[in-house]
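Take a look at the protein record below and tell me what you see:
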Amino acid sequence: MNVDSDRYVVGVDYGTLSGRAVVVRVSDGAELGSAVHEYAHRVIEEALPGSGVRLGPDWALQSPADWIDVLRHAVPKALAVAQVPAEQVIGIGTDFTACTILPATADGHPLCEEFPERPHAWPKLWKHHAAQSHADRINALAAERGEAWLPRYGGKISSEWAFAKGLQLLEEDPEMYDRADRWIEAADWIIWQLTGVETRNVCTAGYKAVHQDGAYPSEDFLAALNPAFSGFTRKLGQELAPLGGLAGRLTALAAEWTGLPEGIAVAVGNVDAHVTAAAADAVRPGQMVAIMGTSTCHVMCSDQLAEVPGMCGVVRDGIVPGLWGYEAGQSAVGDIFGWFVDNCVPASYADRAAEAGLGLHEYLTSLAAEQKVGQHGLVALDWHGGNRSVLVDHTLSGVVVGQTLATRPEDVYRALIEATAFGARTIVETFEAAGVPVEEFVVAGGLLKNGFLMQTYADVLRRPLSVIGSDQGPALGSAIHAAVAAGAYPDIAAAAADMGKRQAAVYAPDAGRADAYDRLYAEYRRLHDHFADGGMLHRLRAIRNEASA
């Protein structure tokens, strides 16, 4: 292939702690260079930068300046690493965590730039869970009124989403609410900065802002929550742009930031999980993609519409045009393992890990892998970050049952890994019971690096695991969408077939371990169902919040 005639696209993935850019060849999806930029502010959870204003429990904010810095640093560096001439880049695409959402002025300026001392002026990250009481009110009223959109979200909307966070904004800081001409997903805001044109994508509008059958919830419904909330949807976009569509052209300012040519195609914004389906060439009905990292998001296309209890949503055209896109998820997965290692492992383990030349996670994994299924005598609930699916309650909390004076850190570590796998099995079984078959389970994300964890999932799920063939799934998926927006492919499916990467059935279940896990899974489900109403866990959360006030 003549490199001088090659065309390239750039994908930018905005994660929880950093942003990454990858340069991709249009013809075959080859990833030629990548770069990561860590956010200076990371996740703002305790106090606002500069002013030091304290935040309440379950808050999680971000800084828009960090997102712009990704364009300034990661994109030029990725181009340099790839040694690709900028003039051969024909498009750029981006993806974001969601619902990560911010109040902005009519011309797109974040309110936190003018009011840095006001917590509600800052973007609320996807894992901001302080709006749970507002979500509870929305759900109760929607159920009471029989709102037609509620079953499309498994019977509950999440505290993470646009309406719950918007109602919290209104009721806790009405001045900031009034000043917010726009309530906009970061996925769309960053496209606004790249093109100078405001667009709203069908994905975040459908999954996070309850847009169904061409409309948001009615003004009458919103007024019943709070009369001042009736006009909330005017802060949202009314015309939605299709995935893979052309949002606009790169402005001169954005070209200066990125080192890319002014005027190249900019793809419509998207969500990190949903765009990964294209990167894994898994955009056909029945292919469930689990993007496993700090949390896990499960996405799947289908040609049929069904009501799946506890799903995060089903949206027409939400992953690829022409199909229904389903989403479910687990609020914490890698975050659970990280919390345990950071807070619950003796220093002696770190010393032994260092002697073995291993990281602490690797060392604990090696010890856990030596055990037989059930040898630790434990079962855990993977609710340390709440439960996204199938209970949709972010005020639930983690539980570990069966500990004795003989329990060791590696026992709990393995039980937590198994708990996340049991949570995934609960999601798969719920989909299939609702008549939406899962024909292939495809894994993407950072946890792919842990082979023991992957094998555990195969055994617990009793099915083979396919894996994405890229370490940069979301960024590659964004690049694929950029290729479509630039006109290099007619649609996402065609681009994914040439540029996506998937290895089929890499991990196969072991029949003996799978049988043993069936017994443990039965105990998990008993524990799951016992605590599902949240009674004790909610009371403990309330006591904690009162003591922290």
In short: DSSP finds 18 helices and 20 strands in the chain. The radius of gyration is 23 Å.
